[in-house]
Amino acid sequence: ESDTASEISFQFNKHKKTPSIGSHSSDMASVSSVSGSVLSVYSGDFGSVDAQGTVEFALDYDEKNREFQVHVSQCKDLAVVDEKKGRSDPYVKTYLLPDKARMGKRKTSVKKRTVNPIYNEVLRYKIEKMVLLIQKLNLSVWHNDPLGRNSFLGEIEVDLASWDWSNRKLNWYPLKPRSLSAVNGVDHRGVMNLSIKYVPPGSLGKMCPKNPPSGEVHIWVKDVKDLLQLRPSGVDSFVKCYVLPDTSKKSYQKTRVIKRDTNPVFNHTIVYDGFHTEDLKDACVELTVWDHEKLTNHFLGGIRLGLGTGLSYGISVDWMDSTQEEVAFWQEMMSASNEWIEGLLPLRSL
């Protein structure tokens, strides 16, 4: 028995399949706000220079203001990006890991035409000390390009749990190449255990009282394992569901919140009706996991179930980006009508 059963009408009108440019723009704006898109720490790296040089910084925690402070002093002997002009325009960027989306990035100003930039800037994070101690600081140096084609110049990662907080002095640290996990795109956020089923219109026979007049997609969110632990007590998580391109209230569903558990069991079933078989090629089920807090919810990871073609009803969309595992899961459902298809899919940054 599922904890919650929800049924939502999901009608694809003809005009949806050939939307006007105006409605397309509106849809894309709302999709962007829903999907909790998170850029990778290493997104936008267009350079191929080797990491070299050093960075001078100090760390401190202001107990009174509950503020983590990264004092970025300067860099020396950075790599040259534009060899013809003999220049680099470097800046420093920081994230708190594992969840770079939660705390966001901080960055210094850009210093032009130098491989020995001097910053003397403080990057600040409002965060409780006990939460900070389960994080890692990722500090990286980048060349700023006017067209956004920024180049990675080196990084250092600091385990804040083992940091000597009595050390408030500025110290030099060698910049290193990016870690193998970053190069390979490894970003473990947990795994979702779920089942899905497609019931075609009229497929259950006239004698069946539950025979749907239109097709139905059933989504059974069972549990999630190994979520990011944002607090020592765990996380208070819930799952949101949309069937894209529809981001209206009719499409939106969510589970209850499971408190203080990085392995939450939801056992929540959602039924979307109004599905015709041809709609399965153009729709995408987006399931995202969030940490619930009073002021704002924090994105933990998600999956998108669809064919991953990049197109929806002939329009190019960024959310039709299912991985090979997600595509295979969706295709298996399409080829096995009226059967539950079980899967264990890794959560990712959408």
Describe the structure.
- It is found in: Cell membrane.
- By secondary structure, the protein is mainly beta.
- The protein has 2 domains: 47-182, Immunoglobulin-like (Sandwich), CATH 2.60.40; 190-347, C2 domain (Immunoglobulin-like), CATH 2.60.40.150.
- It has helices at 14-17, 21-35, 100-103, 129-132, 180-183, 324-335; strands spanning 4-9, 54-62, 67-76, 90-97, 106-107, 118-126, 136-143, 151-159, 171-174, 191-199, 215-225, 237-244, 253-254, 265-275, 284-291, 298-305, 311-312, 315-316, 341-346.
- The strands form 5 sheets. A 5-stranded mixed β-sheet has the order 1-14-11-10-19, covered by helices on one side. It has a 4-stranded antiparallel β-sheet with strand order 6-3-2-9, with no helix packed on it. A 4-stranded antiparallel β-sheet has the order 5-4-7-8.
- A hairpin with a 7-residue loop joins strand 7 (136-143) and strand 8.
- The longest helix is centred in the N-terminal third of the chain and has 15 residues, at 21-35.
- The protein starts with a strand and ends with a strand.
- 33% of the residues are buried.
- Residues 1-7, 11-46 and 180-186 have low confidence and may be disordered.
